[in-house]
Amino acid sequence: MSQTPSKQPFLSDHSMGCGVQPPTKSGRIVSGHKSSFGWWPWMVSVRRNSYFGGSSSHKCGGVILNHQWIATAGHCVDDLLKTQISLRIGEYDFSNTSEPYPHIKRGIKKKIIHPNYNSMTYENDLALIQVDEPIDFGAHIKPICLPPEDTDDLSDRNATITGWGRLSQGGERAAVLKEANVPIVSNKRCEEMFKSVGRNEAIPEILMCAGYDKGGPDSCNGDSGGPLQVQNDEGHWFLAGIVSWGIGCGEPSQPGVYTRVSVFRQWIHNYIQHY
């Protein structure tokens, strides 16, 4: 396995090749639920190892930032020891062992929860995971970009969420990676939406929201830690948000709530550059 330099490129620079999808896509379901193999090559399954270590089960999503670092939600890993966490990278269908390219497995070298993470409010819900061996990039394994420094307000932009979470509140988990398009709404509008159904939720600037007034496509249990991703004008995808919390799944006027990654860009940079 090739070794990477000790200082990893800060892959928010789109010239570094982050956020790039394959040139073609096949098998997409128009409803926007089922993805295609390799179409979201930065997706990671963050898994909880069994007590005896012989198997693991999907707990949360995550994304590749560079050869050594994964981003996920703080609440996904704050209660787990490093030895209890494993990663599947380049995964698509949990039930299929004959995919075009195999997934790879990694253990954990370092787990960093944001120092201001609040397990009661889910504020600063962000964690970085350093893998125990560098990740080799390939056709189905690539990093996502971080938000550019000049990222404007993303309100009213379309975004895509991806994950292996439950297909409905209390329903079964997805075996195949799913995707859905959702509109980003302003924090003020998000608070108004919650208020319209009798919930007084404060949405500070470290959070962001995405979803529909009428309900519908949304992140759900098991999608936590995965990306809310936006495509820029050059075709590169960047990590706008990380799935944090929600009330139900796809309920009217109850959008999904995400950690706003642009606020934490420098904090992320400080780790992935210098370790």
Automatic annotation (TrEMBL):
PROSITE patterns cross-referenced by the UniProt entry: TRYPSIN_DOM, TRYPSIN_SER
CDD domains: Tryp_SPc
Ranges for domain Peptidase S1: 29-273
Entry keyword Nucleus: no
Keywords: Disulfide bond, Hydrolase, Protease, Serine protease
A single GO molecular function term of this UniProt record: serine-type endopeptidase activity
Segments of this protein annotated with the region Disordered: 1-29
Record field: transmembrane: none
Any Pfam family the entry gives: Trypsin
A biological process from GO: proteolysis
Keyword Transferase attached: no
InterPro entries: Peptidase_S1_PA (IPR009003), Peptidase_S1_PA_chymotrypsin (IPR043504), Peptidase_S1A (IPR001314), Trypsin_dom (IPR001254), TRYPSIN_SER (IPR033116)
UniProt protein name: Peptidase S1 domain-containing protein
Lineage of the species this protein comes from: Eukaryota, Metazoa, Ecdysozoa, Arthropoda, Chelicerata
